[in-house]
Each structure stands twice: as structure tokens, then as C-alpha cells.
Specification:
Layout lengths: L2 H13 L4 H15 L3 H37 L4 H23 L10
Helix pairs in contact: 1-2, 2-3
């Protein structure tokens, strides 16, 4: 790999976390050193960071799915499921208190 391209590739690794302003500065600098136009370098930086961010999201999703599968295998529940169960128990307890607080009907005398 020739030196300007190698430098550009290494710089892109650090560009993932850059702000738009800093990415413009980097594009200027790399364009001057590498003999490319600023727009071409900026487009390349934008495309690379988009791909890397997309890859990071997919890796995170796969890791999450793997963990969820392992948790299911162990019989663990998610926080969301736990919250739903807490709500259902609270509703049942409330209904039970309502039933228990009703006056009981007295059977008619003589029957």
C-alpha cells in the first residue's frame, strides 16, 4: 500500500469519533498530503465512518441476541418482563383487596 493511502486509512480509524468540524480539518490535511481533493477525502471519511458505525451496531445487536439466548437458556427474565410481572401482580393484589373489602351478603333467615 502506498504511503498516502496508508496514512489516510490510519487516519480514518481515528475519524470515527470526530465531529463534523474536525473531520473537515482532517480532510483538508489529508487532501494536501495525499494529492486528492478535499471533497473526495471527505466523502471517503463519511462513507467509512458510516460503514464502521453500521458494523458496530450489527455487532452489538448480534451480541445482544446471543446474550438474550443464553439468558433464556438459564431461565432468566428481562427487566421488561420483570416489570410486566410486577404490574400484573399489583393489579391482582388490588383486585383481591377490592373483593375482600366488599361486605359479605348475609343469607336470608330461614333458608
Amino acid at each position: 500500500m502506498d504511503e498516502p493511502v496508508r496514512r489516510l486509512a490510519l487516519a480514518l480509524v481515528g475519524a470515527v469519533a470526530l465531529t463534523a468540524e474536525r473531520a473537515d480539518e482532517l480532510a483538508d490535511s489529508l487532501a494536501q498530503r495525499g494529492g486528492m481533493s478535499k471533497d473526495d477525502v471527505r466523502t471517503w471519511i463519511d462513507e467509512a465512518t458510516s460503514r464502521w458505525r453500521g458494523d458496530a451496531v450489527r455487532v452489538g445487536e448480534r451480541a445482544g441476541a446471543t446474550l438474550n439466548g443464553a439468558f433464556r437458556e438459564l431461565g432468566l427474565v428481562t427487566r421488561e418482563e420483570w416489570g410486566e410481572l410486577e404490574l400484573r401482580v399489583a393489579q391482582i393484589e388490588h383486585r383481591l383487596r377490592l373483593v375482600e373489602s366488599r361486605p359479605r351478603a348475609v343469607p336470608p333467615a330461614g333458608k
